[in-house]
Design a protein that fits this description.
16 strands; about 0% helix
């Protein structure tokens, strides 16, 4: 409901929303509800209008100072909507891996830590800044250069502005070897097992000898 001073918009114009109409937010009367807007429906980024005030007499939220028509969306800062990741892919070209991902919506998204696992341990290799709050598809990419190994795994650690985070699914790529390579075993030291990776650029017959500390096979 729009109510004002007789004009469509004016200094006293306010928006009011029934608390029961805010689907997806449990017990909205106990939450801090923030209103966002963007001038062009369906495109552009949202900006913060302000925090809604709750009126217990009418069970409504309201905000004053509205000066024009916009597309509005509400979210609870106590329980923000998650970043909706719709795709995450990895493609290897030689020793370069290109990562691409897309979000449908974002609320309070600080960005994405890009993590790689090629030795059994996850490592952060980069960060891609998010779009904050948005209600339209956003596209991201990251290039991992000079990658070594055979099968490489990647995941995203999506981080909110308040530090909360969530991991994506893991994607895996298999690199085509370009040289004869023997990687460091992992774990090292080990007991009772370890993993030794090696790469062959062409089909070859190889012999792998493993010695103990006494130089015995």
């Amino acid at each position: 409901m729009i109510e004002g001073n007789g004009a469509v918009f004016g200094n006293g114009t306010s928006l009011r929303f029934k608390a029961s109409s805010l689907t997806g937010i449990e017990n909205p009367a106990t939450k801090t509800i923030v209103l966002y807007k963007r001038p062009t429906p369906g495109s552009g980024d949202f900006t913060v209008v302000g925090t809604l005030t709750y009126d217990p007499a009418t069970d409504e939220f309201f905000v004053a100072g509205i000066t024009g028509f916009s597309e509005f969306v509400m979210a609870s800062e106590d329980a923000p909507l998650p970043v909706e990741l719709t795709s995450f892919t990895a493609k290897a070209t030689g020793s370069v891996v290109n990562l691409n991902w897309e979000t449908a919506t974002e609320v309070d998204n600080n960005g994405f830590d890009v993590e790689r696992n090629s030795t059994g341990t996850w490592q952060k290799i980069g960060f891609v800044e998010g779009h904050g709050t948005a209600n339209s598809p956003k596209y991201y990419n990251f290039t991992d250069k000079s990658v070594t190994g055979n099968k490489i795994q990647y995941r995203l650690r999506q981080v909110d502005n308040d530090g909360a985070f969530e991991y994506s699914n893991v994607v895996e790529v298999e690199l085509a070897p370009t040289s004869f390579t023997l990687d460091q075993n992992y774990p090292n030291p080990f007991n009772p097992a370890t993993m030794i990776r090696f790469s062959l650029p062409t089909a070859s017959v190889v012999t792998l000898n493993v010695y103990n500390t006494l130089v015995k096979k």
